[in-house]
Amino acid sequence: MTESDKETRKAQLEELFDQWDGRGQQGSEGSGESPDGGDDLFYKPDTTRWRGLFALLVVFVSGYVMSETYDDFSYWLKDGAAPTEMGDLQKQWRDGTRELPFEDNTYVRMGGMFVTYAMEPVKKKDEEVDEERRAKRYFICPLFNLLVRTEQAFPEPRGHRGAMIAIEPEFLELIQNRLAFPENLDTTFSGEGRLVKIGNVPRTARSAVGTFKKNLPNRDLDSFYVFLDGDLPSDYSHYAILWAAAVLVPILPIFLFLRALMRRRKERRGALQHG
Fold this sequence. Notes:
Elements: H1 3-31, H2 48-68, H3 70-76, E1 84-88, H4 89-94, E2 106-113, E3 116-119, E4 137-141, E5 146-150, H5 172-176, E6 189-197, H6 203-215, E7 225-229, H7 237-248, H8 251-274
Parallel strand pairs: 1-2, 5-7
Antiparallel strand pairs: 2-6, 3-4, 4-5, 6-7
Helix pairs in contact: 2-7, 2-8
């Protein structure tokens, strides 16, 4: 092979390599283009819709939690306030009062309640149970249609069994209507706590309410109020924490959604300007 043939062959190879290099550069430039014709090196999927759906779901769950716990949270707001004095129910009945201005979800103090249809759980005695987990007791006060839940022991009758009990004329109708027995009128009960309509009773008391409805089918228990003795507003502070979480948790997904939405709009405006 002559010297001229070598030079020609060398020039052909260099031209061939230059052609391959040009194709490689065109391929790399083409692969960097986004599906929309932009200059992005990688295609980024649009997650704005999914962020919006997730934020909406979190807001819905938070709203549901807040609506379900609104009564408990509003009762906690009464912490630090003095209880509403309902007075001595026995005395008010004796004076001729037959209706009291009960209000749902209020913090009250009352006394003079008669204990009828008392129900005690079959559990260990109080002295065998931790003080923070004392047994719940229930009874009906027939004076103003009250179902009472308490952790206090029921009052002991003042007289001995079989002793004569003097019945005041104002309370005879309770015995005649079979709402109480004479021995029920020998003692009274007092307490301080939460007063709610029976339809809004907490879940922890619903089983007992169902038991009373089953055992007393002739009583209109749906019109009763439930007095939760010992339930103080300060006992519901965990609902304040729950509400704070329900308010704060949706902030992050809402922020991420709004940021993604603004970014998408900015990219679309840029694409229109370059187009």
